[in-house]
Amino acid sequence: MTENEKILKEVNEILAQVSNVLEVERSTFFLYNEENKTLESVVAQGIENLIISVPLGTGIVGHVFETQQPLVVNDVYANPLFASSFDNQLNFKTKSILCVPIFNEDKDIIGALQCLNKQNDSFSNNDIKVLNSFATAISLIIKNSKLYYTSEHLKNNFSKLLEVFKAVSSELNLNKLIQLIMNKAAEITNSDRSSLFLVDEITGELWTVFAKGLNNTIVRTKKGIVAKVAKTKTPLIVNDPYNHPDFNPAVDLKTKYKTKSILSVPVFNSEKEVLGVVQVINKNDGEFHLDDLNILTGFASQIKIAIENAKLFDQIEGMKNYLNILVQNLDNGIVTIDSNRKIKTINSRFFSMFNVDNSLNLEEKHIEDVNETLQSLFSYAEETIKSGEKTYFDDIEIQIESQKFITVNISALPMENAKGENIGVIMVFNDISKEKRIQSNLSRYIPQHLVKEVMNKDNLSLLKGNYSKCSILFSDIRNFTTLTEEFGAMEIVKLLNNYFEAMITSVYKFDGILDKFIGDAIMTVFGVPYANISDSKNAVRCALDMFEKLKELNKNQDRTTPKVNIGIGISTGNVVSGNIGSEKRFEYTVIGDSVNIAARLESATKVYNVDLLICEQTYQEIKDEFYCREIDTLLVKGKNIPVKIYTVLKSKKELLSNEEQNFLECFSEGLSNYKIANYQEAKVSFQKAKEIKLDDGPTKTFLERCEHQLLEVSNL
Asked: Could you give the C-alpha distances from 255 to 33, 213, 245, in angstroms and in order?
């Protein structure tokens, strides 16, 4: 265990003591993130895999950090400092809070320690003294405010190395394993490309087994930085390669690629001899540093283990595999071919799989003497016959009749004699046509994340419902009935296909789940089955992206195809999700008030002539990222309390113009006066808003309402 891991463990143990001594439900340690000006929950009881980020000055903890004074709040909802949005995000009910600041040894504030919900009493001044002592203990442990970044970096690197270790322990296909490791090497070092150069023992050249970004192009060299690393057995960081004497630009010229930075690490075998060099190229966010070198060295050691394990596996299995695979894979097509390219054995499953007449005597035939279909199949053995290494090919489509195709996975495994000499290859053909067809068909009708469950469970009624929070998006084409009457069936079908394709692209882009098509309407869910703190924001981002996609679609439509306008409603809240229906027919969906509200909001877009409406809970969760505008208060069917509705203007990454600000102020003044029945002043404000934005739908609606109300008053 590293020092940083020990620190995290010690802080967590202190929090457990805090909760036990003070008899509280939860304790949380917040550390100041100077770069983002936020307080981050480094260690938080009751919350897994989630970091709470609190802006300075927000909530009790933000106030304590700014004032540097402890604070007791025994009735949080009566305190204006309390931020209830965090309870909503975490599905937790806060009743009372005790929070104290944490200082480092230089008396600079570095964070805060917070306890929630005293169990049998109210927090007292004595509790403050106790918590301050724990805060001092934490300060002594962490020493400085870099713990957050260090611990996050540690956890990320550790998880990547753990993933590689799992792959090494479970995968003996060397080519696939190296490809996996190289992808992770580029990912963990945040590099654009990665490659593995192995030493050719005959020529002394270094050549790539796999190069990320090079489409498996084979590059051979005796020059350059990679050759120097292999020769000196020393890793090398080069952040200005074109000014380095050992850099060879020939590869860049060949691949049309510009190398800006290089990190190379030697790979050793158990005898400390160089097997090759692992190399990452072009750090995405700047230059390579010592941290990158350390993690890549860890990867190099895993690659060494992979290569040695694969070679050991081949040596041990050898001829044993020749017999065992025939027994263990009787459901697969099995063919053995010797080093002279002659077929030695072939099982009956192979004949039936590829619709080959089993009366044909294929044994002892050279693979060039069989028909073209079989020749194409046996060609996958060539690489293994030449190299003696296992090869694996996924999703190979083979035509066995004029209108019939099958999809197979092909494994080519080397055959060795007792001396370890390569004597041929064992080919294993696994027919996955049915599985691929079922998965493809199911994915057209049910959400993709349920396909595996549907295929693997005998009794789908066992998929129980869940009560959870999510965001629901309803979109609908405006005046679709009119369009169907004006245009022919062919135009409408073409229109819908293009429209749905564009809209679903946006849904998947922002991690949404397509629940269903309802005629020309689309129902999408964000947060089911796996909730995310950004579900409501993703729903809004998706809606805005759908509008952009629709603009492009309308722009590119030919003259005979009608233009499309849509309205979108978004609601956030608790729903029941699961399989709903009968034993004979299920539908995985969500039900609840939030679903009904989303549909109601979509319908209301037509009333107010706006593209998008969201509920109040959605607004509360997105208002820090988007400019929003309150539109009205609606009484939704089935609800006794009216709900506020809003529309979304744009991201806060953009600034509002003076005209937009003036318009929003006028409309807001009008809405405020309208709510208190001050219709004359409301009318004046709405008139000002209309002068700024003539075609605004809600403004027109409220002007009409004001006229109607004033007329009724005058008739009294």
From this structure: 42, 10, 21
